[in-house]
Design goal:
Distance between the termini: 27 Å
Low-confidence stretches: none
Order of helices and strands: HHEHHEEHH
Largest sheet: 3 strands, antiparallel
Shape: globular
Helix content: 55-70%
């Protein structure tokens, strides 16, 4: 392999195109399913899921934005909609008043529980079912390495 070439070789190009398809089309397919079955977007589901996995189902908005790959203004608008639906409650962080906490409400948890079965089935159909156990392990190893490299790049390292 010519490591000096500025171009991808044929195998790299094929892999890159497959990865682009997954990165771009998978979220769109998940979004379509969630909109159809639950009336929420993939982003909205992800935010509810992140909150549900947090200690006491509560997170600082700044942390929630980071783990949801969102900007603060986008998340703030979403929190407005979620509060109007009684899915979250916001309050000042008692440990540091400069921060705002978002807490998942019972209604928010119920929305997540109702939305999860079809969403999980779609994830299984699109991601896990096409792969053997060995392929899943290899994919996990490869994606973990790529994710770590990307995170380092984003953190300026």
């Amino acid at each position: 392999m010519d490591t000096q070439s500025p171009w991808l070789d044929d195998g790299q190009q094929d892999l890159w195109q497959a990865l682009l398809t997954v990165v771009i089309a998978l979220p769109a397919a998940l979004d379509r399913q969630l909109q159809r079955d639950a009336g929420i977007s993939n982003f909205e589901y992800g935010v509810l899921a992140q909150l549900s996995m947090a200690d006491e189902a509560t997170m600082r908005l700044s942390d929630l934005a980071r783990v949801s790959d969102s900007t603060q203004p986008r998340l703030s608008k979403l929190m407005d909609r979620f509060e109007a639906r009684d899915w979250v409650a916001r309050r000042p962080d008692p440990g540091d008043g400069r921060y705002t906490l978002a807490a998942l409400t019972d209604a928010g948890r119920q929305k997540l529980v109702e939305s999860a079965p079809e969403h999980v089935a779609q994830v299984k159909r699109l991601v896990f079912d096409p792969l053997s156990t060995a392929q899943r392990r290899h994919l996990e190893t490869a994606l973990t390495r790529i994710a770590a490299t990307v995170r380092r790049e984003l953190e300026g390292g």
